[in-house]
Amino acid sequence: MDLLIFQAPILIVQASLDGILIGILFALIAYGMALQWGVMNIINIAQGDLVILGGYIAYTMYLVGIHPGWGVIVSPIIMYFVGYGLYKLVINKVVDRDLFISILATFGIAIVMQQLMNFIFGADVVVAQSEYGTTMLFDNSVTLPNSKIFAAVISVIYAIALVIYMKKSKLGRAIRATAQNARAAKILGVDTEKVYAATFGINAALCGVAGALIAITLTLHPYVGLPYTVRSFMIVIVAGLGNLPAVAISGMGLGLFEEFADYILGTEFRIGAVFMLLVFILVYRRFKLSRKREYLK
Amino acid sequence: MNKLVKLFITSISAITLALVSFSSSFAKVEGDYIVLGSAISLTGKYSSNGVHTQNGYNMAVERINKMGGVNVGGKSYKFEIIYYDDESNPKRAAQLAERLIKQDGVQYMLGPYSSGLTKAIAPVTEKYKIPMVEANGASRSLFTKGYKYLFAVLSPANQYLEVAIDLAVEKNGGKPVRIAQAFEQDAFSQDVRLGILDAAKRTGSEIIIDDKLPKELNDMAATLAKVKATKPDVLVVSGHTKGALTAIRQVSEMKVDVPMLAMTHCDAAALSKQHGKKSEYALCASQWHKNLSYSDKFFGDGKKYDKDFTKEFGYAPPYQAAESSAALLVFKDAFERANSFDKNKVRDALAKTDMQTFYGNIKFGPGGQNTAKPMILFQVRCKGDDCENKVVAPTKWASDKFFYPTPKWSERS
Asked: Range of A205's domain?
């Protein structure tokens, strides 16, 4: 049974498509993380919880009778302000401190968010119905939920829009300048405080989009944020900061890797395989860096 | 001034101490009240089922107190429960059990919600020899440790879906079937899996897919792709509410055709409400259903319980609430038969329980599990967009015929 995938080669197509589609969604979350990590040097443990909150916004829309697909527009707008508020409330006090403090602070935010979501939305697992139907390929032997295709397309659109925004707009340039050298940017008249707040807001907005997509493709629960944080952390570690194409490729790679690990090693090793990969990559990077006689910051 | 403050503090602590020692020596029965204790998940990830459990307990307490209470030694007593919130955390639950027993002097316990938390509390109640009647811990390992003071009104986890395999074999003309199964890696779901392995062995059936889903489970596309490729006769899924919701979402989206889909936790997941028609024909294991014809003098039958509970709490009772109510009936019966508040006598009376409640027959095996009540299976059936759970097995209690095989997705509207 182990090597079912080689007996039925069509499964390779199915697994690849499943992996790539879900990987694109992970990449979107990871992109937000890479952005604010690069700009503010903060590892956001609450990343996954921001995603879930975004999902609950779409779910609430679904409950009041609006199609949850619109969540991809409404949720980022609300989440931008949530992120902005979080920055003003907590994050601005830990920017420029060492990484450990930011991890503690965002871990605290994660716990508070989980409990609040539990309080407001209840501890039940929920789903929002998109009714997008299914695409069937190769005489029905490969089936792709349209909701997953929708999720991938929307993720790509947002990613491209953000890249253009970063290159062309004034704020985008200010963000990039701050990422390169915050002190120099400040001297040259960039209001770094504002840039930080906007960056955190944009990150939360991206999480909002991803959350809305997760509400219609997977399931929502107040306590399932952490796996999304871990996955995006992984993608960013592999891709490096400030390298969008690498984030996209690494996201899809992770999706593919997970799917194939499921077929070849077994479902129970799916997550384990991802962590093994993380260890391998960290060791490899360390090895490469040690040869360069530099140190890992 | 300083002296005054000191005196004040000393007297306050003296009074507190006195109160504590006073309450701990008399708390088991205070005046006309028999005090029970329970750590329950009112916050955290089990909070919805924790609240169902608490509502079930409260409803039974109120009903029993109203209908004459508990008669011991010719005198009538009332039930009272001390609750603490365990935050869905096993360590906290064990601490609270200690606190209930040592500080509050509770001598009789009601169980928490979930197998995991019951497992955390059972060693504590066992250590202090406190009888505990629990209604929400089904894991088989609870009943193989030789616990003497643990009694469960529900059927153990390995029985949840065994019936489904028997049913599949029956529909296959008595011939063995090919089973695909996916279970979450937690104590409960793995016990359900053991039950399936037993049933497969007994019927000579073959397990062709045996996936263990991660706890962070949110995507089972790979498992379902395997199911599509291998075409088993029955697909069995157990992963709490998340598993049930994910399975239906992805089975419908990926158009996986399988003659029979059997799951757990469908009613806790409000499957027919959240997924509507997509969940039709799914077969679900349940401890209880309102249409069963068991009855007792406190709640009448299941339908009456359903009506009264809905009136009181504003939602239809899931089986978690019903079994919790039944736990109180068991305690009342044991107190009256023991005719004493001695906890060892109560324990012996509990062990000899043999009664019928609206929830089902209750008789405890040597490990403390309920051996008198079978699991039931219901099937989701829809009329238009209105979906309902219909009992289809075992035959004795079935209100509707089992619809088999599940129509192909291409034929479903």
From this structure: 21-241
Number of domains in chain A: 1
Residue B345, domain member (yes or no): yes
Tell me whether B178 touches chain A (CB under 8 Å): no
Q: Could you tell me if residue B245 is inside a domain?
A: yes
- Interface check for A147 against chain B (CB to CB < 8 A): the answer is yes
Please tell me the distance from the alpha carbon of residue B397 to that of residue A294, in angstroms, as a whole number.
73
On whether residue B228 sits in a domain, the answer given is: yes
> Searching chain B, which residue's CA lies closest to the CA of residue A137?
B254
* Domain contains A246: no
How far apart, in Å, are the Cα atoms of B264 and each of A11, A17, B271, B363? Answer: 28, 30, 11, 24
Domain span including residue B250: 159-286+375-411
Residue in chain B closest to A13 (alpha carbons) equals B225
Closest CA to B217 of B187, B247, B254, B192: B247
Give B229's contacts in chain A (Cβ within 8 Å): 4, 8, 10-11
In the three-class reduction of DSSP (H, G, I as helix; E, B as strand; rest coil), residue B182 is classed as strand
Going by C-alpha positions, the residue among B86, B46, B49, B64 that lies closest to residue B327 is: B64
- When mean pLDDT is compared across A14-28, A280-294, B76-90, B330-344, the lowest value belongs to A280-294
pTM of the model: 0.82
- With 0-12 / 13-18 / 19 or more C-beta atoms within 10 angstroms meaning exposed / middle / buried, residue B161 is buried
**Is B255–A140 a contact, with Cβ atoms under 8 angstroms apart?**
yes
pLDDT at position A33, please? Answer: 92
What 3 state SS string does B28-86 have?
CEECCEEEEEEEECCCCCCHHHHHHHHHHHHHHHHHHHHCCCEEECCEEEEEEEEEEEC
**Residue B4, both tokens:** 């005054």
Indicate whether this complex's ipTM tops 0.90: no
